[in-house]
Amino acid sequence: LALYFHIGEREEKCIIEDIPSDTLVVGNHKVQRWDLHMRDFLDSAPGLGMFVTVTSPTSEVLLSKLYGPQGTFTFTSYISGEHIICFQSNSTRFAVIAGSKLRIHLDIRVGEHFLDESGIQAKDKVNEVNIRLENLIEQIHHVTREQEYEREREEKFRKTSEETNSNILWWAIVQTLILISVGIWQIKSLRDFFISKKLV
Fold first, then answer.
1. Core-most of 19, 74, 105, 176, by most CB within 10 Å?
2. Cα pseudo-dihedral 186, 187, 192, 194, rounded to 10
3. Is there a contact between 70 and 29 (Cβ–Cβ < 8 Å)?
4. How many other CB atoms are there within 10 angstroms of residue 173's CB atom?
5. What is the pLDDT of residues 109-168, one digit of tens each?
6. Residue 81, SS3?
7. Is domain 2-113 classified as CATH 2.60.120.380?
8. Alpha helices in the chain (DSSP H)
9. Which residues contact 51 (CB under 8 A, 6 or more apart)?
Protein backbone atom coordinates (compact mmCIF):
# COMPACT_ATOMS: atom_id res chain seq x y z
CA LEU A 1 0.00 0.00 0.00
CA ALA A 2 1.62 3.27 -1.15
CA LEU A 3 -0.25 6.56 -0.87
CA TYR A 4 -0.06 10.15 0.29
CA PHE A 5 -2.56 12.34 2.09
CA HIS A 6 -2.83 15.89 3.42
CA ILE A 7 -3.42 16.85 7.02
CA GLY A 8 -3.40 20.05 9.03
CA GLU A 9 -0.40 20.74 11.23
CA ARG A 10 -2.31 19.91 14.44
CA GLU A 11 -4.67 17.35 12.88
CA GLU A 12 -4.67 13.58 13.44
CA LYS A 13 -5.30 11.25 10.51
CA CYS A 14 -5.95 7.50 10.79
CA ILE A 15 -6.09 4.69 8.28
CA ILE A 16 -7.50 1.19 8.77
CA GLU A 17 -5.52 -1.82 7.60
CA ASP A 18 -6.99 -5.34 7.64
CA ILE A 19 -4.12 -7.59 8.77
CA PRO A 20 -3.93 -11.35 9.47
CA SER A 21 -2.55 -12.53 12.82
CA ASP A 22 1.20 -12.99 13.45
CA THR A 23 2.13 -10.75 10.54
CA LEU A 24 5.01 -8.29 10.37
CA VAL A 25 4.02 -4.84 9.07
CA VAL A 26 6.62 -2.34 7.89
CA GLY A 27 5.70 1.29 7.20
CA ASN A 28 7.80 4.11 5.75
CA HIS A 29 6.64 7.72 6.05
CA LYS A 30 7.92 11.06 4.82
CA VAL A 31 6.53 14.49 5.82
CA GLN A 32 6.46 17.54 3.54
CA ARG A 33 5.23 21.01 4.54
CA TRP A 34 3.38 23.46 2.29
CA ASP A 35 5.57 26.47 1.48
CA LEU A 36 3.59 29.68 0.86
CA HIS A 37 6.39 31.38 -1.09
CA MET A 38 7.26 28.43 -3.34
CA ARG A 39 3.59 27.36 -3.47
CA ASP A 40 4.64 23.72 -3.26
CA PHE A 41 5.24 20.95 -0.72
CA LEU A 42 8.89 20.98 0.37
CA ASP A 43 10.84 18.64 2.62
CA SER A 44 10.05 19.31 6.25
CA ALA A 45 12.47 20.88 8.68
CA PRO A 46 14.24 18.34 10.95
CA GLY A 47 12.31 19.56 14.02
CA LEU A 48 8.91 18.49 12.70
CA GLY A 49 8.17 14.83 13.39
CA MET A 50 5.28 12.39 13.44
CA PHE A 51 3.64 10.56 16.30
CA VAL A 52 2.67 7.11 14.98
CA THR A 53 0.11 5.12 16.97
CA VAL A 54 -1.05 1.62 16.04
CA THR A 55 -4.11 0.10 17.73
CA SER A 56 -5.22 -3.53 17.44
CA PRO A 57 -8.86 -4.65 16.86
CA THR A 58 -9.14 -5.12 20.66
CA SER A 59 -8.06 -1.46 21.23
CA GLU A 60 -4.64 -2.53 22.50
CA VAL A 61 -1.88 -0.04 21.59
CA LEU A 62 0.80 -1.96 19.68
CA LEU A 63 2.97 1.05 18.86
CA SER A 64 3.11 4.67 20.03
CA LYS A 65 6.28 6.47 19.10
CA LEU A 66 7.60 9.81 17.82
CA TYR A 67 9.54 9.64 14.56
CA GLY A 68 11.34 12.32 12.57
CA PRO A 69 10.10 13.86 9.31
CA GLN A 70 11.12 10.62 7.62
CA GLY A 71 11.20 7.21 9.23
CA THR A 72 10.30 3.53 9.31
CA PHE A 73 7.98 1.92 11.83
CA THR A 74 7.35 -1.81 12.33
CA PHE A 75 4.91 -3.85 14.37
CA THR A 76 3.58 -7.41 14.48
CA SER A 77 -0.14 -8.15 14.59
CA TYR A 78 -1.17 -10.64 17.27
CA ILE A 79 -4.76 -11.14 16.17
CA SER A 80 -6.52 -10.85 12.82
CA GLY A 81 -8.65 -7.82 12.07
CA GLU A 82 -8.72 -4.11 11.38
CA HIS A 83 -5.70 -2.30 12.83
CA ILE A 84 -5.87 1.49 13.12
CA ILE A 85 -2.70 3.41 12.21
CA CYS A 86 -2.79 7.10 13.23
CA PHE A 87 -0.44 9.98 12.40
CA GLN A 88 -0.13 13.36 14.10
CA SER A 89 2.63 15.94 13.87
CA ASN A 90 4.53 17.02 16.97
CA SER A 91 3.91 20.69 16.14
CA THR A 92 3.63 22.84 19.28
CA ARG A 93 2.32 25.96 17.48
CA PHE A 94 -1.09 27.28 18.51
CA ALA A 95 -3.99 26.07 16.38
CA VAL A 96 -4.61 29.66 15.14
CA ILE A 97 -1.17 30.02 13.56
CA ALA A 98 -0.57 26.33 12.83
CA GLY A 99 -2.44 26.55 9.57
CA SER A 100 0.23 24.90 7.49
CA LYS A 101 -0.72 21.88 5.42
CA LEU A 102 1.37 18.74 5.58
CA ARG A 103 1.66 15.99 3.00
CA ILE A 104 2.38 12.52 4.36
CA HIS A 105 3.85 9.96 1.97
CA LEU A 106 3.14 6.49 3.31
CA ASP A 107 4.26 3.07 2.15
CA ILE A 108 2.95 0.07 4.14
CA ARG A 109 4.13 -3.45 3.44
CA VAL A 110 2.25 -6.32 5.10
CA GLY A 111 4.07 -9.60 5.65
CA GLU A 112 7.45 -8.11 4.82
CA HIS A 113 10.45 -10.38 5.33
CA PHE A 114 13.99 -9.08 5.31
CA LEU A 115 16.77 -10.91 3.54
CA ASP A 116 20.17 -10.73 5.17
CA GLU A 117 22.14 -9.42 2.19
CA SER A 118 25.48 -9.93 3.90
CA GLY A 119 24.59 -13.58 4.41
CA ILE A 120 23.42 -13.96 0.83
CA GLN A 121 26.67 -12.52 -0.49
CA ALA A 122 28.63 -15.03 1.54
CA LYS A 123 30.99 -17.22 -0.42
CA ASP A 124 29.55 -20.39 0.99
CA LYS A 125 26.77 -21.35 -1.47
CA VAL A 126 25.14 -23.72 1.03
CA ASN A 127 24.54 -20.82 3.44
CA GLU A 128 23.11 -18.73 0.61
CA VAL A 129 20.67 -21.51 -0.33
CA ASN A 130 19.72 -22.02 3.33
CA ILE A 131 19.01 -18.32 3.84
CA ARG A 132 16.89 -18.12 0.69
CA LEU A 133 15.07 -21.33 1.66
CA GLU A 134 14.28 -19.96 5.14
CA ASN A 135 12.95 -16.77 3.56
CA LEU A 136 10.75 -18.78 1.18
CA ILE A 137 9.40 -20.84 4.09
CA GLU A 138 8.56 -17.63 6.00
CA GLN A 139 6.73 -16.29 2.95
CA ILE A 140 4.80 -19.57 2.59
CA HIS A 141 3.75 -19.32 6.26
CA HIS A 142 2.61 -15.75 5.66
CA VAL A 143 0.54 -16.75 2.61
CA THR A 144 -0.97 -19.65 4.58
CA ARG A 145 -1.95 -17.31 7.45
CA GLU A 146 -3.51 -14.87 4.98
CA GLN A 147 -5.52 -17.66 3.34
CA GLU A 148 -6.76 -18.90 6.74
CA TYR A 149 -7.78 -15.36 7.64
CA GLU A 150 -9.66 -14.95 4.34
CA ARG A 151 -11.42 -18.29 4.97
CA GLU A 152 -12.47 -17.10 8.44
CA ARG A 153 -13.84 -13.86 6.98
CA GLU A 154 -15.67 -15.74 4.21
CA GLU A 155 -17.26 -18.13 6.73
CA LYS A 156 -18.33 -15.21 8.94
CA PHE A 157 -19.83 -13.43 5.91
CA ARG A 158 -21.65 -16.63 4.83
CA LYS A 159 -23.16 -17.09 8.31
CA THR A 160 -24.30 -13.46 8.36
CA SER A 161 -25.87 -13.86 4.90
CA GLU A 162 -27.69 -17.05 5.94
CA GLU A 163 -29.04 -15.38 9.10
CA THR A 164 -30.19 -12.37 7.06
CA ASN A 165 -31.90 -14.61 4.47
CA SER A 166 -33.63 -16.56 7.25
CA ASN A 167 -34.86 -13.33 8.87
CA ILE A 168 -36.15 -12.04 5.52
CA LEU A 169 -38.03 -15.32 4.92
CA TRP A 170 -39.72 -15.18 8.34
CA TRP A 171 -40.57 -11.51 7.86
CA ALA A 172 -42.16 -12.32 4.47
CA ILE A 173 -44.24 -15.11 6.06
CA VAL A 174 -45.40 -12.77 8.86
CA GLN A 175 -46.29 -10.06 6.31
CA THR A 176 -48.27 -12.56 4.22
CA LEU A 177 -50.21 -13.76 7.28
CA ILE A 178 -50.96 -10.16 8.29
CA LEU A 179 -52.20 -9.33 4.76
CA ILE A 180 -54.41 -12.44 4.65
CA SER A 181 -55.83 -11.63 8.12
CA VAL A 182 -56.54 -8.01 7.12
CA GLY A 183 -58.16 -9.18 3.87
CA ILE A 184 -60.44 -11.66 5.67
CA TRP A 185 -61.35 -9.01 8.25
CA GLN A 186 -62.19 -6.49 5.51
CA ILE A 187 -64.39 -9.00 3.62
CA LYS A 188 -66.22 -9.92 6.85
CA SER A 189 -66.68 -6.23 7.76
CA LEU A 190 -68.08 -5.43 4.28
CA ARG A 191 -70.42 -8.43 4.38
CA ASP A 192 -71.69 -7.43 7.84
CA PHE A 193 -72.15 -3.85 6.60
CA PHE A 194 -74.15 -4.95 3.54
CA ILE A 195 -76.29 -7.27 5.64
CA SER A 196 -76.97 -4.52 8.20
CA LYS A 197 -78.01 -2.15 5.41
CA LYS A 198 -80.11 -4.95 3.83
CA LEU A 199 -78.23 -4.60 0.56
CA VAL A 200 -77.69 -8.34 0.33
1. 19
2. 110
3. yes
4. 10
5. 887 654 444 544 555 667 778 777 887 888 888 888 888 888 888 998 999 999 999 899
6. strand
7. yes
8. 117-120, 125-196
9. 64, 65, 66, 67, 86, 87, 88, 89, 90
